[in-house]
Amino acid sequence: MVKSGWKWSNFVVYLRCKREECKNLFLGEYRHNVDAKNRLRLPPKFKKEFLDGMVLTKGNGNCLFVMPKEQFSSVVAKLSEMPMFDSAIQKPIRMLFSSAVELEEDNQGRFLLPQHLKTYAKIDKNIVFVGVGTRVEIWAEDEWQKYNSDANMNIEQVFSVLGEHGI
């Protein structure tokens, strides 16, 4: 009976995704390296969602956010509704946009990691791509391990926080 329920829930998710509700669903983590010229490749599992372009910007926790151009456009639309003269909201908006770059792949499927973002994320060579639903995060491997070990300290507490938000 449990097995049947599991299959049904997968079927329901599949149907939702077919209706475009799950467009740009990024899951999992993938380890890669930055080459000597600061180039890297997206994991193959993520590539199809970035066919219309991608934007890279600073994220929180010293990671970088990679979003499909369409997803970033929806963030832009929400932020354009914020009060222009509210300095408390304008500072994070400026930081987000001033660090953002549109990424272009070369003919071998690589893109250049800008030095200012590489420095911000403390990236040397080893990186981890992390699927976070509607975006991909790029972490320096050491930073990801530190963050992940902190998050795993008390998984019950993590789920409790999600519960408080209605998940």
What do you see in this structure?
The protein is an alpha+beta fold and 167 residues long. A hairpin with a 4-residue loop joins strand 7 (126-131) and strand 8 (136-140). The radius of gyration is 18 Å and the shape is globular. The strands form 2 sheets. Strands 1-7-8-4-3-5 form a 6-stranded antiparallel beta sheet. Helix content is 43%, strand content 21%. It has helices spanning 2-18, 44-47, 69-79, 87-99, 115-120, 141-151, 155-164, and strands at 29-33, 39-41, 54-58, 64-68, 101-103, 110-112, 126-131, 136-140.
Side-by-side strand order of the widest sheet: 1-7-8-4-3-5
Which structural class should the secondary elements be placed in?
alpha+beta
Question: Which CATH class is shown?
Answer: Alpha Beta
Shape: globular
Query: What is the makeup of the main sheet?
Result: 6 strands, antiparallel
CATH homologous superfamily descriptor: Transcriptional regulator MraZ domain
Helix content: 40-55%
Tally of extended strands? 8
Distance between the termini: 24 Å
CATH fold-level topology: Chemotaxis protein chec
- Strand share of the residues? 15-25%
How many DSSP helices? 7
Query: Rounded to an integer, what's the Rg over CA atoms?
Result: 18 Å
Round the mean pLDDT to the nearest integer and report it.
84
CATH architecture: 3-Layer(aba) Sandwich
- Report the uncertain regions: 1-20
- Element string (H = helix, E = strand): HEEHEEHHEEHEEHH
The total domain count is 1
